[in-house]
Amino acid sequence: MYKLVRNRLEKWPVLAAALFMIIQVFCNLNLPTLTSDMINKGVSTGNTTYIWHTGAKMLGIALIGILASAGNVFFASTQAQKLGTKLRNALFEKVLNFGNHEVDKFGASSLTTRTTNDVLQIQNVTVMILRMMLQAPAMLIGGIIMAYLSEKKLTIVFLVSLPLLAIAIGIVMSFAGPLFSSLQKKIDRINLVFREGLTGVRVVRAFRQDNFEQNRFEDANKSYTDTAIKAFSLVSLMFPIMTLILNGTNIGIIWIGANLVSDRLMEIGNLVSFMTYAAMILFSFMMLSMVFVFIPRAQAAAVRIQEVLDTEYSIKEDSNPTSLNNSELSLEFKNVAFRYAHAERRALESINFNLHSGETLAIIGGTGAGKSTLVNLIPRLYDVESGQINLNGTDISTLSQSKLHEQIAFVQQKAFLFKGTIRSNLQVGKPNATEDEMWHALELAQAAEFIKDLDNGLDSIVEHNGANFSGGQRQRLAIARAIIKPADVYIFDDSFSALDFKTDAKLRKALSNDKKISQSIVIIVAQRIATVTTANQIIVLDEGQNVGKGTHAELKKTNSTYQEIIKSQLKGEDI
Ligand SMILES: Nc1ncnc2c1ncn2[C@@H]1O[C@H](COP(=O)(O)OP(=O)(O)O)[C@@H](O)[C@H]1O
Ligand SMILES: [Mg+2]
Question: Is this entry keyworded ATP-binding (predicted)?
């Protein structure tokens, strides 16, 4: 945790918090002595002026103590808040740069918990440390010294009460500690189930799995609640134990003290102040031990945060990137093979092709054939296992990633839209796009018509993930967002599947007639034969193998897999 916090706290505010804390402790330690003076020299002798005097002094010191305490709280809390902000920013920045591989590894829900709950734990403990970590030992030691100075003989009671308290705390914490660490994992689990239920809410309903999901969530939630109740019940045991020991100590003090007072070996005021010191000592001792409970919990959170921050990107940025050769556009796959982490089988095997400006490649194959995997390699969402991908003759792994991404416009298989407006979504593709460019892109994507029908046109609201549009409309908007981007390579991963045959054909025709896109490289992933017929090259994929390559006419004659696909889709009709 130290590593995580060290560079993220500011030196001066932390020192200020410590300084205020010391002033506060100093004030607290002085008050009982003044009480004792007031009783010894004022009350017993009936000296009213002295009482007023000391009273005023006490009031002043108490006031300073309160101000110092407020100062300490102010600096401690602002530092902790700022620390939380910095940690969340650092995590978000890191996660934004994660490749799919890293996201797969942690899981989205765990990343969420780490950014929210775990950071909160650190934040809370930071306040605690800045408030108590110094205060408790200072009060403890100061209290013992002051108690000793005010009455040596009475300090004997601590020899009994402090070890008793230590044993009680030790027993409680040894049970509570492990419970606290398991709480974090259980929150992860709640988030996971909740997220799954939320993203899959339609599927859940359609398959009548509501009860199953509900039970799953209740189980996770109950498991968390049970553990939390156990842990906090154990901790709450501390207060009665503490009270018991404190009262026992006071009885001891009065017992011994009463004898001393009656023998005139001690003044009554000292007895009172000693009892206050005793409460202070025991209380700080308990506070200190509480800090030690929460530190392991925060430590667990810190480890989880650090784990994310320390993750090495699987997609490595070349430290000395080569610049892209702009003279001639080409995209080449040379013997490319790929395997997902922990997968037994390769998802792609020796893929070869070479495309030039103005050419269209179509990739066809059944579900799970590896089509998405293949196109995901182009923007380096994953890196190849062996072989090479060249853009304009340069290995893409030696290019800077931002440069590479600039060249590529990608429509993912699962069309994702941002919450905002049509306009703001299109601006993701091209930030400074004009209205004309927007309408042109929408026109090409066959989306202009239904946007025109909306009351607010380009400024119509898009809900999170485009929930207020149909699947086909979402796809067309995602296509418009991609084609508005000035790029060299346009990739459409199964983007035409939710469109009817007529719209699909119109869209492809519009793309091939567009001035900009007709000079670029276009890759179309499809499962439908009709979508691929006009491509310059077609690659037929089956279980990651390239089982055929050529034009529609060639493949139709010679390739058995291709013929099978045709047969299954058109029942032998000629196209
Ligand atoms: N993130 C992943 N981790 C492990 N295996 C994956 C992952 N994504 C896809 N696969 C596997 O790789 C194969 C190809 O998947 P994919 O490229 O999505 O097929 P397609 O797009 O042709 O339907 C499938 O067997 C699939 O199970
Ligand atoms: Mg796919």
Answer: yes
